[in-house]
Every structure is written in C-alpha cells, then in structure tokens.
Amino acid sequence: MKQSCAWKPSLRYSPVLMILFIVIIGCAMTVGSAVAATPKATEMWNYYQATNMYGCDISPDVAYVAGGTYNGKVFLLTIEGELLWTAETYSPVWGVAVSRGGGYVVAGTDIGDLLVYDKEGDLLWSKRFKGIIHDVDISADGSVIAVACADGKVYRYTNLGSEVWGQSMSSAVLSVSVTADGSLIGAGTKGFLIRVLDSEGQKVWSYQINGQVFGLDLSPDGAYLIAGGNDAYVYIFDDAGKIATQLRTVTQVNGVSAALNGEYFALGRGDRETMIYDVDGMPITQMSAAAGVNDVSLSPSGGFCAVASSDGRLYLYSLPVEEVPVETATPCPSDTPVIAPDGEGILSFSSAPSGATVYLDNEVKGITPVTLPLPPGQYEVLMRLDGYNDWTTTINLLPEDTVNVVAQMTAATPVSTPVPVGFLPVLGGLFIAAVFLLRRTDE
C-alpha cells in the first residue's frame, strides 16, 4: 500500500515531465542544427620541413604557393602541394612572394639579401641591403617588387632589378604589400606607423597604431588594408585610411592577408590560431596549427588560405567560400605549352585536390589538371570528384584568350535539416503549458 502511494506523485507530474522532455529535445535539435551548419575549413595538404616556416604566398592565379624557412630555404609548390623546386639562401627567409604563373618568386633574408627567382628556381638577380629584409611582395604580373627593410626604408623595384624609389619610414619597416596592379604600396613599421604610398612614392595616407606592425596587406584591388601586430588588435582600413573594423585578438598577430574587395580577411596569431573574418569583422572559420602562426596568404577570392607555422609545416586550406575563376590573357608559359589553332582560345583546368572530372556543356573533357584549345564562346563548366561537392561556373572564352580555372573542391558532408522557424513558437507554447499544469497539479 505504501509502495502504491509512493508512485502517485510521479504519476501526477508525468504529463508535465513529458512536455518538458519534448521542449528539451526540441532545443537540442535547434542547437545541433545550428552547430552542424557552421562552415569549416578543409586542410588540403601540408608541406613539412624540420625548421620554422616563416613566409608563404599564393599566386594571383591560384596555381602556385611559395614558402620560406628559418633554415634558409625558399621553395615553390603547385596548388596541389607538389614540390617544384627548392633554393638555398644561406640565411633565414622572413618574406616570400610569387607572381602570376609562378613567373617570379621573391625572397627577403636575415642578412639583407633580396633574391628573385624564375619559375624553374634559377636565380635571376639579387641585391644586398644594409639591414634585415623583413618582408617582400610582388605585383600580379611581376613588374613591381616591394621591399620592407630594417634600414628604415620601404623600396620599390622593377622585376629587372632597378630601384624606382626608397622612402624613409623613420624606423625599421617590418611589413609591406603591393596591389595587384602595382599602383599602391603599403608598409608597417617598428615605430607603430602604417603608410600607403602611390607609384611615385608619395604618401596617400598614414595611421599610427599602438604596437609594432608585424603584418600588413592591401587587398589586390587596393580597396582595403588590414594590419596587426604586438598590440593584439587587427585594424581594417578603407581606401581613404579610415578604420572600417577594429578587432581585439587577445594575442599577438604575426601575419595578415586580404581578399578582393575586402570580402575576407585572414590573420595568423602567435597562439597557433588562424582566423578568417568577413569585411564586417564577423568570424567565418578558424584553423589550428601545432605552434605559432608566422604568416598567412589568401587567394584573391578567399577560397584558399596558406598558413606558415613554427611547427615546420606550410598548410593549404580550402575555405567555405566560393572561389571565382581567375582569368589571365598572358599566363607564364609552361614546360609543354598548349598552342591553340588560329582564332581559338585555351581553357586550363586545375583543382585542389587534383583528379576531378571536367565537364563542358555536360560532356566529359578530361581529368584535372588539363588544358584544352577550344572555339570561342560560352561554356558551362562542371568539375566532379568522389567525396566532394560538385563545382560549377560559366566561362566566356574569347578568341586567342587563355583562361585559367582553379576549383576548390569542398568535401561533401551530411546535410543537416534545420528546425523550421515555426517550430520555435510550438516549443514556447509547450513550455508555458508545462508550467501551467505544474501549478494546477500543486493546487
């Protein structure tokens, strides 16, 4: 009899408990759906050396990745991670840059050497400066080279080795960037100064922050500049030098990168994290290395990010954004160039990872990487690879033009079904009903 009475309170509350259980499950579904929908970066590959990686750069056509190491090596990889060549610099490499088609690879070293290599890794020319070269950059076509030097100057050079100008920045220049067309050069200093210069070396704008400027990058079109350093802040400026966004990063920022139109920004931190933000400063995704991150590089549209870390690895990530095909009419010639018949154009396809099937207007044309001479016209492109989402775009091919198409293949993931918005009021109603029944039961 006592046992029967003991169960009565539980039976009285069972409807209430059932409603609360439904509410809890519904909330869990909502949260789980939101978490499942969060985009993630995908590691495509990493290249290892038994030393610290200090520099990295993705070519403007998203076909190559250059890197530099503490033990005095500069190297060039394909976007698929294949090593093409390595050169000895006999001094730590602090900065690297690569032009379209891998035509020029530039490196700056601890003993003050500016080194310029061709696509095969042969040294074209070099110059010794009176100070450490902390950073270098190069325009998309390779005609303009920017140099950040510890002698307190930022320099503009031609690809043939001629100095155009050198402008004093009052303290050691730690970071430098040049726009894709070479019209603007930005520089950051040990004395907390950020300055943007035009093609004649004249100041466009400047700004003083609260720390040494370890990382600085102009977006390829010059619309935005991102900078960060040891004050644990990141500053995003518009083309007039006004702060568009300012982010507190908690720890030191060693490297930054900006995509076209400032759509995406990357920053590499001393605490091993690489963060990706949009133009409003909202986080997109993040990646972790096993040691501090020294440099980062975004592809022009933000679809790929290279990361150089003190863990000895150069990483390439595919980011959860769309990579726009990069068109170029005068690519650097390959070892076995494809020559199109008169009046035709060339479509050159590659993907990360490689091995994707290429369809043009629903017809199979080959496996990436593949280069095709084709009549001018509009083509519907589909690239398909097992385990990855389909990649599509539309290309307009002009006579005697060449278009390089690089696809970032994102790994296929199970699609989570989001909880309908209309279900949330139902959950709220059930919760209120549970409270009402509980009060009635107590009475």
Automatic annotation (TrEMBL):
Record bears the keyword Transmembrane? yes
Residue span, Pyrrolo-quinoline quinone repeat domain: 80-227
Gene3D superfamilies found in the cross-reference section: YVTN repeat-like/Quinoprotein amine dehydrogenase (2.130.10.10)
Keywords, sorted A to Z: Membrane, Repeat, Transmembrane, Transmembrane helix, WD repeat
Q: Name one Pfam family in it.
A: PQQ_2
Taking the record's annotation, the residue ranges forming a coiled coil are: none
Q: Where is the PEGA domain?
A: 345-408
Which regions span the lipid bilayer? 419-438
What is the protein name given in its UniProt record?
PEGA domain-containing protein
Query: Upper lineage ranks?
Result: Archaea, Methanobacteriati, Methanobacteriota, Stenosarchaea group, Methanomicrobia
